[in-house]
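Board work, copied verbatim: Hydrolase
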Amino acid sequence: MNRCFLKRLLETASPSGYERNAALLWKEEAKGFADLVYGDIHGNSIARKSAKCYFSTRIMLAGHIDEIGFIVSAIDENGFVYFEPIGGFDPQIFPGQRVRVYSRVFPSNFIKGCIGRPPVHLLSNEEKKQVVKIENLWIDVGEKENAKKISLGDYGVIDYSPESWGDILVARGLDDRIGAFTVLESLKAIKKEKLENAVAIYAVATVQEEIGLRGAITSAYNINPKIGIAVDVTFASDYPGAKKHGAGIKMGGGPVIVIGPNITPAIHDALVETAKENNIPYQIEAISRGTGTDANVIQLSRAGAATGLISIPNRYMHSPCEMVDMRDVQHTIALLAHFCGKNIGEILKSY
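↓ predict structure ↓
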């Protein structure tokens, strides 16, 4: 695994609609081993392992490269900046956070600020009981001159850099830059381990998943895969007070192979079989509906695709300190690589 690349990817801000810099980084990394690297007009990034025959079966491995963030919606005469969230934030997280605002006027750098609200000493007893509302928060960039560098429509993220604590990775936006990283590393592993089959494999860093699975819709339509596997994060339930059934989902327990209506049974079974054959630890998650992941729309693209979903356990999702175990990431890479080396015709023979 190229952890230096992963760190650079996680440092790069990429809220939905503003993924360009992260996409450029992802494509540059892919050029080292992919047969073809390109982007589409929507902003999706694609790295392909080519097959010898144009009409070969196509497998799409998708991980979304966007993260949650915010967009500048107003600036008052005193230089205080107001914002709207991009994606699903818990407003309780915002007060007191340092942020980075990326300016279109000064694209080479970002402006630092902090999210302000009245101090607790000045809140009434009733106000202390109320849920924080985003409209009552603002970004303070210090000197008023700094606000002049900011325009409506500029974007930002919470100022939180990745850290490694042994096998544990803590960062903002692991949902789902870790998935975009994993599908690319899987493509590299397929080439390195010579697991290539007579199929064309497309690793895709999709965009705008956090606001409606949008990039997967356009990229899956363009690629038209026979098989599509999304890689995302899922809720770990191994922390105090977590609701869980049975053993729950554990960090370090291996990739989570999803089963349910959004998943083609033959793909689920083949992923489980692959894990067993290669001594890869895995967990099962049953989801009774369309998932909130790229797998949802890949399954419905064009005439449909045989669909799978592999999830990486994640604590504290949509917070600045999301947490994953890199051993789960490594096992997910191995699972995808070995799956793509299987006899795909045999997997789909009943369809």
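DSSP finds ten helices and 17 strands in the chain.
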